[in-house]
Design goal:
Layout lengths: L1 H28 L3 H4 L2 E9 H11 L3 E3 L10 E9 L1 H8 L5 E6 L2 E6 L1 H14 L1 E8 L10 E4 L5 E3 L5 E6 L4 E5 L6 E4 L8 E2 L4 H4 L2 E4 L2 E4 L7 E5 L21 E4 L11 E4 L12 E4 L2 E2 L10 E7 L2 H4 L10 E6 L8 E13 L8 H14 L8 H9 L11 H5 L4 E13 L3 E13 L13 E16 L2 E17 L3 H10 L27 H6 L2 E19 L7 E20 L4 E7 L5 E7 L8 E22 L2 E16 L6 E14 L3 E12 L8 E12 L8 H4 L2 E15 L12 E12 L5 E11 L8 E14 L4 E13 L2 E3 L14 E3 L2 E17 L2 E18 L30 E4 L5 E5 L5 E5 L17 E3 L27 E11 L2 E11 L2 E3 L21 H5 L22 H4 L6 E3 L2 E12 L2 H4 L6 E15 L20 E11 L1
Parallel strand pairs: 2-5, 6-12, 18-21
Antiparallel strand pairs: 1-3, 4-5, 6-9, 7-8, 7-10, 10-11, 13-14, 15-20, 16-17, 18-19, 20-21, 22-23, 22-55, 23-24, 24-25, 25-26, 26-27, 27-28, 28-31, 29-30, 31-32, 32-33, 33-34, 34-35, 35-36, 36-39, 37-38, 39-40, 40-43, 41-42, 43-44, 44-49, 45-48, 46-47, 49-50, 50-53, 51-52, 53-54, 54-55
Helix pairs in contact: 8-9
Length: about 1150
């Protein structure tokens, strides 16, 4: 199977190469624009200038002329039908002394040679020739830049290499203009060589905004949309989802683990709005539903987040959780550009847990015995043996973390991109290699470390088959190998956190593997468990392909076009593993010669034959659409009608997953001031019965550009360059059912427990038969989300300051769940499914971007903030005994399944809470004072135990005092996330820094008591955190606010139960990214045949400020912080463009 997958991948790569060669060949074989473009005009009594304007409007031609050589106000009448530019101009200038020259899309108008010879001779004597090159700030050449002489209409355009040449007076000025760039006026000052760098213009760059199923002029967008360029997501991480935390307003992202290949972040758009259905956003790459973690940041042009109904309703039942649109890079009409980027990174854990040594561990164990009035287990002599380490075989003190985990590791990344083309065909080809090694120490005979090797290839080809027909052919592929121990990383970290340091060494001094006699569960040697039980490998290969065809239909009506797309994705996974076990022993002592004596615990098991399995997924996506966009003077109208179908086939399922949708959208804009948009999505899903299978999800959006009003104060125009209001209202849906399919149909199974009479022994006879497992629910349907949004966009000082802010108020209803309040006597083997429940979600998000150029300095800054708070309006629960136990009316706090609600901890008991007496032995006896409530979980409450609040005042601490969503605490997913950063560029030297944070989030230290509570499973199945050693309640340190309460050995119920004592403020601020680099001088590198080059140092997850301290706060409650650690990364990089 593995070989077949590799051969299949190779065939695919060869096919991609073939398409690339064909595309490039076409790009160089194409006819010139003037040869294939025809014009149709019918103009009466119009000036020559107006004729030029009409040609420029209906084509890509640009007219360049001097007003001294052309009478542009001459009235003409012209009528042509599908004629070339030369035929049109021959008629236009018939009988005049003007002539012309057509160079691709540029048309130069001049006098006939005899008329202009003398004038030109005089002019040439007064002018000099200026040549140069135009580039952007990265050093990439800019073809198509218009250079004009100030005060005239004479000009030229840069070629494919950004080169230009123009005659100008020595004292004249040249004006450089290009779409998306700031127009620049440069004095000639007698120079013959003039190289120019153009900077991006924030306002012009954002003229077009990516939206659902297309794009719109940004000035007419009514919805809440946020975008960043792919370059901003470059980070030394394995998965793209770990690169955008804090970067995009409205996006909440949390990374729970750093394990290679399994470190994808969880993310939500504007928080969570469901307690049962799916909450993950829909992700589309180039318009096709795909994973964002399969694409490299270098391949991305734009990353767009759609947040409100006006943006997401077109996705129907897939839009309730928001939508992420990733657009990959495409070719450009320029000479081939080859870019290489290479990085080497050094990784260390952001934070590692600290555990007690054997001496401290056993000392605390003795202390716990004394706290319960019992004699200590270990004598001072034994403790001293552990303290001194005199015999590490029999008295070990093992730092299991350092024994199994390396303190650093490395990863590498190499990307190679090709980009170019002609007017007829354009291409972008990218290849990437990424390698990451984990922290686990490895067996020298085979690799049991967590490692990842990934190869990516992408080819995007655009071909203008005719002037009106565009074809796009896209391929991408990935080959991935992943390696790890036979055991999961979580199992390994659990054993590190639970095995005591004194129990056994990892390996005895003579090389013998150690194992405890009772080696099951948490007593198993973690070193053997990691390095001596085998390994697993995963091989993954996939292809993603699509063909897109677009046809202009201007012959029907200008602005109309049709397009279609079909994509095919194939994903294949092959898994193999081998298991083994070594001989293990337990040292019982030493013989007379001092040699260790052993008891064998486990016999060796040689490597077993490889076990393998595989799975595959095939996906087909089809889409057809008709677009319309046209301006009628101040009126701009757009329209869209679209249909699509999705088909997904899993190899182990007989029935494919299918969806189909119908989409409509229309917008009207008047004078770039007022915009109204209406759109809808109709989704058909297999999840529901006929009659409920299709859902209609409409939305409407409005926008008002105040700054374009004629009455906008002139005094403000120099300050306020853009001032817009937006509002939207609509409905979206969600059909995610948590994996269960066809819930409207019943399912049946067999059972052997039917009771049928009484047998001879007096017991019930049991017979086999069919039973109904799942009760049919034909009435179930979509989750529905009503979304409301108002927003404001503000640009200041020519958009050097760009601000967007949105307030949203969403309500999710018809939440699909299994009913919880069904009587047992109703006869259901499984509780039935039903649409029941409402969650409200409110909040705001916003961003501010700053950019300013002062001489050679380029300054930039950005900040984002997102706040989302939900509230349960309707929940399927029995009326509790007290209101504080209700979920209805409270937030979603992500209570773990089966975990009790918390008690409210006040502090630790102190001696002031007790009446103290002494027994005959002189030991203190404690009796609680009147009015102070004790604990029902231990025989006698003492100072140092946790004191809880008696919520209902009945004088008893019990389950009636547990509180859902207690005041002053927050959910496990942050309600607030933010980010801010700044950058500085000076003559090629640049510096960028970014900080990311979270607030309104709580971390529960005791979410996994087995990994946290000392002596939870007894003496030989628990480890102790160093924080407990350093700050716990003792008689010598009777601090009521100590980190850890009085130690216990057996009676742990009071302190171990879920309570707010273990809750910690999970807010954090992280120094997320730092980059310092240098762009080499172009005049130097160009001599080496290099267009641009830079070197840089990058830091990621550099430092975090928080109150958790024990582990990285972003890991949160995950297994008590005992997961694979997040990484602090320092990277050296080099980027070269040829």
């Amino acid at each position: 199977m593995k070989g077949a997958n590799i051969r299949k991948t190779c065939r695919i790569m060869r096919l991609i190469a073939l398409f690339l060669v064909i595309g490039i060949g076409i790009s160089y074989a194409g006819n010139s624009y003037s040869q294939v473009t025809t014009l149709s005009l019918k103009l009466t009594n119009k000036t020559v200038h107006e004729v030029f304007d009409e040609i420029e409007r209906s084509s890509e031609y640009i007219f360049l002329y001097n007003s001294n050589t052309l009478d542009a106000n001459r009235l003409v009448t012209i009528s042509v039908e599908k004629e070339t530019i030369s035929e049109v101009l021959d008629k236009l200038f018939a009988g005049t002394d003007n002539t012309y020259k057509v160079s691709d899309r540029q048309v130069y108008i001049s006098k006939a040679p005899g008329q202009e010879a003398r004038v030109d001779e005089v002019r040439q004597q007064q002018q000099i020739q200026v040549t140069g090159k135009v580039t952007d700030i990265t050093g990439e050449s800019l073809p198509g830049v218009t250079i004009t002489v100030e005060g005239s209409t004479r000009g030229v355009i840069t070629d494919h290499d950004g080169i230009y040449s123009i005659n100008v007076a020595p004292t004249g000025n040249l004006i450089f203009s290009f779409v998306g760039m700031q127009t620049l006026t440069v004095p000639v000052e007698g120079m013959s060589q003039l190289d120019v760098v153009l900077h991006e213009h924030a306002e012009l760059l954002d003229e077009v905004q990516i939206v659902g199923f297309g794009q719109q002029r940004k000035g007419s967008v009514t919805s809440a949309v946020a975008s960043v360029a792919g370059q901003e997501l470059r980070a030394p991480v394995g998965k793209l989802s770990n690169a955008f935390a804090g970067q995009i307003a409205g996006l909440i992202s949390i990374q729970r683990t750093g394990e290679p290949g399994a470190d994808a972040a969880e993310f939500w758009i504007r928080g969570m709005s469901s307690f049962a259905g799916g909450t993950s956003p829909l992700v589309l790459v180039d318009g096709v539903p795909r994973s964002m973690n399969d694409i490299e940041a270098d391949e991305i042009e734009t990353f767009t987040v759609l947040k409100d109904a006006a943006a997401t309703a077109v996705y129907g039942a897939q839009g309730a959780n928001g939508v992420v649109l990733i657009t990959s890079k495409r070719g450009k009409a320029q000479r081939a550009r080859i870019s290489y980027r290479g990085e080497v990174s050094h990784l260390t854990p952001t934070r590692r847990p600290r555990y007690a040594n054997s001496y401290d561990y056993l000392s605390l164990y003795n202390e716990a015995f004394r706290n319960e009035g019992r004699e200590p287990e270990f004598s001072d002599e034994v403790l001293e043996m552990y303290r001194t380490g005199a015999d590490p075989d029999l008295y070990p003190s093992v730092d299991w973390w350092s024994t199994l985990i390396n303190d650093h590791t490395y990863n590498t990344r190499h990307t190679l991109n090709f980009r170019g083309g002609t007017d007829r065909a354009r291409y972008f080809v990218s290849g990437a290699y990424y390698s990451e090694s984990g922290y686990f120490k490895s067996n020298p005979e085979y690799d049991n470390n967590s490692t990842l090797n990934r190869y990516n290839l992408r080819s995007n080809i655009d071909i203008d088959i005719t002037d009106n027909t565009l074809m796009r052919v896209d391929f991408s592929g990935q080959y991935l190998t992943q390696n790890r121990s036979r055991q999961t990383s979580q199992d390994i970290f659990n054993r590190i956190s639970r095995i005591p340091p004194y129990l056994i060494p990892a390996v005895y001094s003579d090389g013998t593997f150690a194992q405890h006699p009772s080696f099951t569960n948490n007593r198993q040697n973690p070193w053997v468990y990691l390095t001596e039980t085998g390994y697993q490998k995963t091989y993954r290969s996939f292809i993603q392909s699509s063909v897109h065809l677009e046809q202009k239909l201007d012959f029907i009506t200008p602005g109309l076009k049709a397009r279609g797309m079909v994509s095919y994705d194939s994903d294949n996974n092959y898994f193999t593993s081998r298991t083994k076990n070594p001989d293990t022993f337990y040292a019982t002592g030493r013989d007379e010669e001092g040699n260790l004596t052993y008891r064998q615990i486990q016999n060796e098991v040689k490597f077993a034959d490889p076990a393998s399995s595989n799975n595959s997924t095939k996906k087909i996506y089809m889409e057809a659409a008709v677009d319309y966009q046209r301006d009628f003077g101040p009126h701009a109208v757009t329209g869209l009608l679209l249909a699509n179908r999705q088909h997904r086939q899993l190899h182990n399922q007989a029935l494919a997953y299918r969806k189909e949708s119908f989409v409509g959208r229309t917008t009207y804009n008047y004078d770039n001031r007022y915009t109204v948009e209406f759109n809808f999505g109709v989704t058909g899903s297999e999840q529901f019965a006929k009659g409920n299978r299709y859902g209609f999800f409409p939305a409407v959006g409005l926008a008002w550009n105040v700054s374009n009003e004629p009455y906008f104060p002139a005094a403000l125009e120099k300050i306020v360059s853009n001032f817009r209001f937006r509002a939207s209202l609509g409905r979206t849906g969600n059909d995610e059912t948590g994996g269960a399919r066809f819930l409207y149909m019943p399912t049946f199974g067999d059972t052997g427990s039917y009771a049928w009479g009484i047998g001879s022994t007096g017991t019930t006879n049991s017979l086999a038969g069919l039973v109904e497992n799942r009760f049919e629910s034909p009435g179930i349907s979509w989750e529905i989300e009503e979304k409301r949004n108002i927003g404001i966009d503000l640009g200041l000082w020519n958009n050097r300051v760009d601000i967007s802010f949105d307030y949203f108020n969403d309500e999710r209803s018809n939440i699909l769940l299994q009913r919880r309040t069904v009587l047992n006597v109703a006869g259901f083997r499984q509780n039935p499914w039903q649409n029941y429940g409402i969650v409200q979600n409110r909040g705001f998000d916003g961003n501010i971007n700053l950019s300013h150029i002062i001489g050679d300095f380029t300054l930039s800054g950005k900040a984002t903030v997102t706040f989302a708070r939900n509230k349960i309006i309707e929940y399927d629960e029995l009326p509790p005994a007290y209101d504080w136990m209700k979920r209805t009316g409270k937030r979603l706090v992500n209570q773990a399944s089966g975990q009790p609600l918390p008690l409210i901890a006040e502090r630790l008991f102190t001696e002031d809470d007790f009446n103290i007496s002494y027994d005959n032995a002189g030991s203190k006896q404690y009796a609680l004072k009147d009015g102070i409530v004790g604990s029902p979980w231990i025989p006698q409450t003492k100072p140092g135990d946790i004191k809880y609040m008696d919520i209902n005042g009945d004088g008893i601490i019990d389950n009636n005092d547990r509180v859902y969503d207690p005041e002053g605490y927050h959910p496990q997913i942050p309600e607030t996330v933010y980010g801010f950063g700044f950058g500085l560029d000076y003559k090629g030297l640049y510096f960028n820094a970014f900080f990311q944070g979270a607030a309104n989030v709580t971390v529960n230290l005791n979410s996994n008591s087995a990994s946290f509570m000392p002596f939870h499973w007894g003496l030989i199945e628990s480890n102790v955190r160093q924080e407990i050693v350093d700050d716990r309640w003792t008689e010598e340190n009777p601090n009521p606010n100590a980190f850890f309460p009085r130690l216990h050995v057996s009676n742990m119920g009071n302190n171990n139960t879920q309570s707010t004592f273990w809750y910690r403020n999970g807010n954090f601020l992280r120094f997320k990214n730092l980059e310092v680099g240098y762009n080499f001088n172009k005049n130097i590198v160009n001599k080496l045949g290099i267009s641009a080059s830079r070197i840089y140092v990058m830091g990621h997850n550099i430092h975090v400020w928080d109150q958790v301290k024990m582990f990285d706060p972003e890991i949160g409650n995950a297994d008590g912080g005992t997961r694979y650690p997040l990484s602090r990364t320092w990277t050296m990089g080099l980027e070269i463009t040829f």
